[in-house]
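Q: Here's a chain of 82 amino acids. Please give me its 3D structure as tokens.
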Amino acid sequence: MTVQPPDPDPANTPDLESGGGVRPGSTPPDSAQTSGLSEHEPRTSWSFPPTGVATMVVIGVIVVVFVAIAVLLVLDIVGVFD
């Protein structure tokens, strides 16, 4: 058994011109839109939660300690502490 293709045969499609175009006025009207939200979206807040603030503070402290150690090592290599 042969499965029929999902698209209609262009030879049997009404109002279809030879190049595949459609005559003006032959197109169907716009269909209704079914996508969209059924209820309102919750408001988003622009503030960080407390855990986000704590994380940023911890990362800032780690970066400051890292930079301080790097500066001290460079000064030790240069010979400032001799």
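Q: Can you summarize the key feature?
A: DSSP finds one helix and no strands in the chain.
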